[in-house]
Here is the input.
Amino acid sequence: MQQVSVWEKESFYAHKNVIIAGSGFVGLWSAYYLKKNHPKLSIAIVDRGIIPTGASTRNAGFACFGSVTELIADTLKSGEEQMLDIVEMRYKGLKRIRKIFKDKEIGYEDFGGYELVTGSQDFDLNILRSNIDYLNRKLKKIVKKEKSFYINDDKISEFGFAGIQHLIENKLEGQLHSGKLCQALLKLVVSMGVTVLNSIEIKNYERINGSIELHTNQHFNLSTDQLIICTNAFAKQLLPELDVEPARGQVLVTSEIPDLKWKGTFHYDEGYYYFRNLGNRVLLGGARNAAFEDEHTYELATSSHIQDTLENFLKEKILPATLFTIEHRWSGIMGVGKEKMPIVKKISDGVFCAVRMGGMGVALAPVIGEQIAELITT
Ligand SMILES: Cc1cc2nc3c(=O)[nH]c(=O)nc-3n(C[C@H](O)[C@H](O)[C@H](O)COP(=O)(O)OP(=O)(O)OC[C@H]3O[C@@H](n4cnc5c(N)ncnc54)[C@H](O)[C@@H]3O)c2cc1C
Here is the structure.
């Protein structure tokens, strides 16, 4: 069996004040706020992937805070207060990302966002208008704008979509490059003195003589005073009692489309479908509601059923009469539960968690990272 050298034991694998499990956006933002508030803390982020391998590097890169039909569905399910609390966290998170990183560094583009409403959804225009008015009224104190959402049907033919009845525009939404944001965050926390360790899976943990021992899949254990679990969809491995379930999201990206008529981020069907331009290519994801049971999985694979559903949607509604090929397909795993509110709490003495980011964790992560950092005792 391979041994650990004294150099390794006294540097990379040395006892830390805080170890963060998971180097997705939540783990990285948690490290950022902890180090910012307490520069002397020794901190390591440990991830089982060669790079972060959950949702943060495998998503769609929407910098968004929710579409009309999704926010109305959330209000009906969990109440107005929770819907507004989550929107506020997302909106603050997006502002913070842009305060800390230059747009160019993270591929941020201000193209705005839209929601598509199709005839088959059978929406009454008056109800749609009153839902938009209601949301604009409620969101005003968060976004400091009169109108977050408005109907802009003139753009439907300009964009070349087919079978779309209404288009709701939201100029406050943007898009970014998730890989670049992840790399920029990693660079930032390393520059602040955080140790990043990859390819180490934390199998379980136990408290021994006032410190927390982390058992790993490697030939060594790690130890820390405090542990923050930011493993999102995979949280049940370490915390089986939590209400966090895996929800796979599948994505595809087309070839370059030279005369692509639109730019922006688009939502459809309460957020179950989402697409955006990626330069002149189209990234489309979702359709999880076409096979909920199959997508309740940790497996980072794609399925022909969902991919075909996405391709049909692309051909029929988004790019009718346009020639394209599919160049990339992948999936990522979201952490969801009965409630959309993330779980940010103390689990036991010295053990904390910040998990269940759902489908909009890019925006939520900075605020969640700050919240969990405030729970840590120093
Ligand atoms: C297809 C798809 C599209 C999405 N689109 C968007 C979008 O456009 N906009 C948006 O805001 N959000 C989107 N999301 C959601 C968003 O990506 C997530 O909410 C967010 O990335 C969650 O970040 P996280 O750090 O909590 O989790 P993750 O990024 O999943 O990170 C968890 C990390 O924990 C590590 N890990 C797990 N178990 C262990 C262990 N035992 N030991 C060590 N490490 C471990 C994993 O390797 C992983 O790197 C999308 C998600 C998916 C899947």
Remarks:
- The domain at 108-173+245-335 is CATH 3.30.9.10 (D-Amino Acid Oxidase; Chain A, domain 2).
- Residues 253 and 328 are 5 Å apart (CA to CA).
- The chain has nine helices and 18 strands.
- The longest strand covers residues 326-336.
